[in-house]
Amino acid sequence: MSERNIIFHPIISSIQRIALYETKARFYLIGSNNTQTRFRVLKIDRTDPRELILVDDKVEYNKQEIHQLLNMIGFGNRGNRSPGFNKLVSAFGIVGFIRFLEGYYIILVTKRRKIAVIGPHSIYKIEDTATIYIPSDNSKPPHPDEQRYLKMFLAIDLSTNFYYSYSYDITHTLQMNMAPPRKLAPALFPKPITAAVYHSNLNSENSEDNKCICNDGEDDDEDIFETWKQQLQQRQKKIGGQSQRLEFGIRTVPEWRFVWNSHLLSAVHSYLHPDWILYIVHGFIEQSNLNIFGRPIYLTLIARRSNRYAGTRFLKRGANLHGDVANEVETEQIVHDSMISSFTAGRFSSFVQMRGSIPSYWSQDISKMVPKPAISIDLSDPYAEIPAKHFNNLMRRYGSPIMILNLVKKREKKKHESLLTDVISNAVKYLNQFLPPEHAIQYFHLDMARMNKGADAKVLDKLSAIARTVVRRTGIFMSCKGYDDESGVAGHQAGRLQTGVVRVNCVDCLDRTNTAQFAIGKCVLAHQLYALGLIGEPVIEFDSDCVRLLEGLYEDHGDTLALQYGGSQLVHRIKTYRKTAPWSSHGNDIMQTLSRYYSNTFSDAEKQNTMNLFLGLFIPDPTKPAIWDYPTDYYFHHPEAMVYIPNRRSLTKWWDDEVVRHLPLPSNEMRKLCCEIIGTQGDGALEMLDPYQEYNRPFEYTVFTECFEFKMFHTLRDLAPSSESCSPFVVRGRSVGQSKGPASKNPVISGRSSTTSNNSSDSNSGSSSDDDLTSSTPSSRQINPSPLSLVDKLLSPEEPEDQPMFPAIKRSNAIALKQPSKRDMIVYRRYVNFERRSNPQYEPDIHIVMTVSSAFTIDSTIDVIPPTVTKASKEIYQNYVQRNSGRITIPAASLALYKKYVNFNVK
After folding, report:
1. pTM: predicted TM-score of the whole model, two decimal places
2. 679-714 b/e (C-beta count within 10 Å ≥ 16 → b)
3. N or C: which terminus of the chain has fewer CB atoms within 10 Å of its end residue's CB?
4. Cβ atoms of 110 and 90 closer than 8 Å
5. Using 50, 70 and 90 to split pLDDT, how confident is the model at 906?
6. How much is the CA Rg of the chain, to the nearest whole Å?
7. Which residues are CB-neighbours of 779 under 8 A, at least 6 positions away?
8. Strand partners, 42
């Protein structure tokens, strides 16, 4: 029984446009699809000053019914002097609802921008929002702190690096999204996990919510995917073995760890139809077009920031009691052939890596204004309980092996960073005693700061060697049968799966971590292109368009995450470790260091309070102190400091049974939850499952130059516009297309482009652990490329012309580059001549005489011959114009008749 006969499509939200109407007693939200053929209505009561009262009738209206409803509401609220029913704002989605000390506010997405496409699914970046107060009764004076809380909440600028999609679940990885569902959620639409709910659930082992949402229940429930396979097999036997295909639409339960508006949805999530709900992700998303001889290969980088133990740099270090680490970011690198956008027939590949602080109780004292606060271990953990919970969670999400790449210093005269190295290395040694050898945690250490000293440093070479080991052991995800199917674990529909994850960390998880992730991403990209049959061997060289494109994506990726966590852009960049950064960037590094130091010293406390308020870790209460009156937020993130929580977990069996049962596969994927399943039959089902309407938008006029795909960063257009070779794998000098690097194309970093810090020097800036790279004179040595690979030989200009330029394409996709046939050339010449004759700007090569056999002229879209207007028609038109201007010509017969009438009356 082939798994290809059971197809699952994500359900597309039917509410993509919203109009908010206002009356004195209610708000009416009218939601519709893009074509405005399906409508839903949400009523919000405005008379209660404290509570949020919503009415969602779950009814779908057509255009005629919604007009009748609006007319009836408008007629019923019409006043003597005012209409009483006004349209307040247009929007694209609901972010959520929030309450401080008075009534509720509603947050709407009023402006969006397409930022990426994954197959046929579009991902949008929030550009602007509107926060509207719901209650209409303003007679009571508001609480004096209400406006301050509102101002603090609005300090979270939702227009900077917040993303959503109507059809693609961006809280999950591509591998998870393409996996079949296994379980039905206990509730139709499970309650979202806010930070406060998550802490309370984990503190209570008997919590029902914890069992339902966190998948901690027993594994004896039915696997719906296997059940459907058996039913399909039985149906095939009845009809004599004839192949059938079942198609379903599913709505998956999101990964609440990456849903940043979960607190804003907590009051309404269980009551609203899911089409009203948007799951907002915070982090970084960017996409570029890697053009390989006319074949568009989309390279996408997605970074998801965790909302668990989230905060700013010096205020959030280490981990909390539940193993959630600070600055945890999941980075996914997706490569797909955009010539086929379908998930079922397309060619997709992805790889996931992550970064996060070292899982332990440690911190840095920032009460003293020093550049490098001392690192202190706050609580001894001899049995590695905190790392155990952290790695158990990683195995649940990614499988095994878990690979740690530690970039923190190991040898120091005065112990500073090396304290953290001792903590993580000892924890790994202890925990591996109890794991099966095949699933043991694997540990790598690289002191990048020490290795980068001197002009002959080879940091990237060492990182590349580690990256090759990582890719070989974890594999990459492939949605289809690739060229190299020996590596990795077999997956759904003849693809390959990634099992395990590489976890990269330094002290801050910013500068050094980003360079290491780029080195891993470069190695992964080579294997992805090789598996897709686009290159002959998994090797790509530095200074080629392909690697420069990837480098620009990771530079923007690092800048964005550094601004979110550290308050400035990257100080030390990839060029720093490659020894290619010019001295001219030294001043810029100093400015970035000062910016980061100022942000950490003066503004981090306010930013942390804002984040705690946004994520629901602190809920304002008039009977309790305000959030700014608390000297620290430690007790918000560490409730165990106030309430005794007994440890019921074994110190030797530190993993969950269901996690080890599915290894090396991740148990989250093997127990994938879905909260809604629909068939492909019925009214509206096709529109809910087919993303064609949203992606191609046939219902509106489209200009190609304004399409997202046309504006996307392109290797041929933006990196090598004047180069002789069109290959993105040829090593070029930095002067080719240097001014149009990927970092300068898209100002996604807090409204500013990363080109202001596009270069970096090797200077020693002592503001933090990530900024203490030892100074050395930049080397002018040439970076020698590795030995010529098969790709270089195939793309060399000295090769004979009769050999195929790209045999990998012929091998994998059955495309042979050859001269077109004579018949095809005749068809093409006819097409060209037809276009020339229809466009006057081209001079025809032969004189053409065409006989007009009708009353209509031969026109084109470029030129139209005006028709001949008769004299009588002109007179009629002139009289019509004069009549409108007041100058009317009276006919002689009418004038004579009028004179006769006057004369008769006079007599």
Report:
1. 0.78
2. eeeeeebebbbbbebbeeeeeeeeeeeeeeeeebbb
3. C
4. yes
5. low
6. 32
7. 455, 456, 579
8. 29, 56
Could you tell me which residues come within 8 angstroms of residue 155 by beta carbon, excluding any fewer than 6 positions away?
Answer: 606, 607, 610
CA distances from 262 to 96, 540, 619, 678, 767 (A): 8, 41, 14, 25, 35
Lowest mean pLDDT among 63-77, 118-132, 818-832, 875-889: 875-889
pLDDT tens track for 671-720: 998 888 887 765 556 778 888 888 888 888 888 888 898 899 988 888 87
623 half-sphere exposure, CB direction, 13 A CA radius: 0
Return the sign of the alpha-carbon dihedral for residues 153, 155, 158, 161. Answer: negative
> What are residue 395's phi and psi, to 5 degrees?
-65, -35
* Secondary structure of residue 759 in the 3-state scheme: coil
- Residue matched to tokens 């368009």: 545
> Is-contact 358 325, C-beta < 8 A?
yes
Report the distance separating Cα 884 and Cα 218, nearest Å.
84
Helix, strand, or coil here: 886?
coil
How many domains, in total, are found in the chain? Answer: 1
Is 886 contained in some domain? yes
- Asked, for residue 720, whether it belongs to a domain, the answer is no
Look at residue 570 and tell me if it is in a domain.
Answer: no
Please state, in angstroms and as integers, the Cα–Cα distance from residue 353 to each residue in 395, 487, 502, 561, following that order: 13, 18, 5, 15
Q: Which SS3 state, helix, strand or coil, does residue 904 take? A: helix
22: its two tokens: 């206002």
With a CB cutoff of 8 Å and minimum separation 6, the contacts of 642 are 635
Whether the Cβ atoms of residue 675 and residue 185 lie closer than 8 Å to each other: yes
Residue 401 has pLDDT above 60, yes or no: yes
Coil vs helix vs strand at 804 = coil
**Which secondary-structure segment (H or E) carries 28?**
strand 26-32
Which ranges of 239-278 would DSSP assign to H, the alpha helix?
262-265
| pLDDT confidence of residue 781 | 35
Q: Is residue 895 part of a domain?
A: yes
Identify the domain containing residue 875 by its residue range: 871-906
CA–CA gap between residue 779 and residue 579 (Å, rounded): 6
Please say if the pLDDT value at position 875 is more than 80: yes
Q: Are 569 and 754 in contact (CB under 8 A)?
A: yes
User: Who's near 118: CB < 8 A, 6+ residues apart?
Assistant: 168, 174, 300, 334, 336
